[in-house]
Each structure stands twice: as C-alpha cells, then as structure tokens.
Amino acid sequence: MNSTGPTITAVGLAATLLSEALKQPIGVWIFKPLASLGFLYTGYHSPAYTSGSQFGKTMFASLALGFLGDVCLIHKSPAAFQAGLFSFLLGHLGFAYAFAERGMELKPALTAAAAVGLVGSVVWKWLSPNLPKADRIPVALYTTVISAMVVAASGSAWNTPTPYLQIAGAIIFQLSDLCVARQQFVHKTFLNPLVGLPLYYLSQQMIASLMYY
After folding, report:
1. Which of 6, 31, 96, 159 could, after both became Cys, cross-link 149 (CB 3.0–4.6 A)?
2. Contact between 61 and 103 (Cβ < 8 Å)
3. In sequence order, which residues have a C-beta less than 8 Å from that of residue 111 and are 6 or more positions away?
4. How far is it, in rounded angstroms, from Cα 86 to Cα 65?
5. What distance in Å separates the CA atoms of residue 193 and residue 204, rounded to the nearest whole number?
6. Dihedral through CA 190, CA 68, CA 154, CA 203, nearest 10?
7. CA-CA distance, 188 to 18, in Å (whole number)?
8. What is the pLDDT of residue 136?
C-alpha cells in the first residue's frame, strides 16, 4: 500500500479543520470531499478491488457510500443530515457483510455484541433526550447497524491477516460518530469536528487498508 491515499486525506483533513475553525463554508465544501477522496483512492488501488473480488467490490461500494454521506453532512439541513445518515447506514451494512463473509467466530462476536450493547445503552441514554422526534427512529436504526458492523468486524477478525487493524478501524469509526451526534444534537462546538474528523478519516483509511491483505 502506497502513501498517496492517506496523504490526500491528511491534506484535505487539515484544510477542512482550518476552514471549520475560520468558519469558511466554501473551504469545507472543497476540502472535505478531497479528504474523503483519499480513502476512495486507497480502496480503488487495492489488490482486493483491482482483482474484482466480491470482498473488494463490497468494501469499495461501502467506502463510496461514506464519501456520499460526507458530502451530505456538509449541508446543515435536517434533510441532508438524514440523507447522510442513510448513506452511512448502507455503508456499514456493506462493511458488515464483507467482514462476515470472511467467516465469523462465535466467542469474539458474542463478546463484541455484549460490549457494544452496553456502550449503546449508555449512549442512547445520553443522546435520546436531545433527539427531535423525526430523528429518533433513524438514529436508533443507525446505532444498531454500526454496532452490528463492529460485531461483524470483531467476529471475523481472527480469520484475517490483520485482526487488530480490522477491530480498531470499526471501533474508531463508532467513536467518531459520537462526535457527529454531539455536534448535531447536543452541543455545537469546534471541538466536535476537531476530535471527530481525525478519528473518522483514520478509521476509513484503516478499513480501506484491509483491502490490501
């Protein structure tokens, strides 16, 4: 794996955060898609995708849905947020399917399910009082799907050459979503993208790098 994709993401991310700090929306519109193109580049040039394997095609489609979700979330309207949420939901379903296809192990899957169930209940207790009525079902569904993705990543990890990379990528993705939720529903502050965006792009690059093994 070469460094081109991560470099594109790093440059785009830095410029996006600077634009956010300076409250320059045009910069975010330019540089956030650039940052997301970085993980698409990583996936597109991977052996799994260039060989035409089902794993590679499913993973790349899921990365592309992440790119689409990123673009939707730039717009601040509720409709755009829900469109982005749906795009990411489909992407997580794709990742979960691709991971599970590699073969699931019962014990790590059950351990992960117990852990994400506990964390999910705490997060829901924190978040639900702040959710508008129209967002409660979509957010609950999304939370369930990303939790399932983490379970699939954990349950199948030991059938891959890079188990810790796969598990870490999935967990960091879920952590980055907490920053998105806090920004959208709890407290708008630059701290949310400052923490959440680096976590998000790190996780997407980690997940894309799985296509090289």
Report:
1. 96
2. no
3. 154
4. 9
5. 15
6. -40
7. 17
8. 94
Domain boundaries, the chain: 4-212
Cα 116 to Cα 54: distance, rounded to the nearest angstrom: 28
Residue 178 · residue 197 · CB < 8 Å:
no
Radius of gyration of the chain (CA): 17
Amino acid at 173: F
pTM above 0.70, yes or no: yes
Q: Which two tokens stand for residue 198?
A: 């680096």
- 188 sits in the region (left: phi over 0; alpha: psi -120 to 50; else beta) called beta
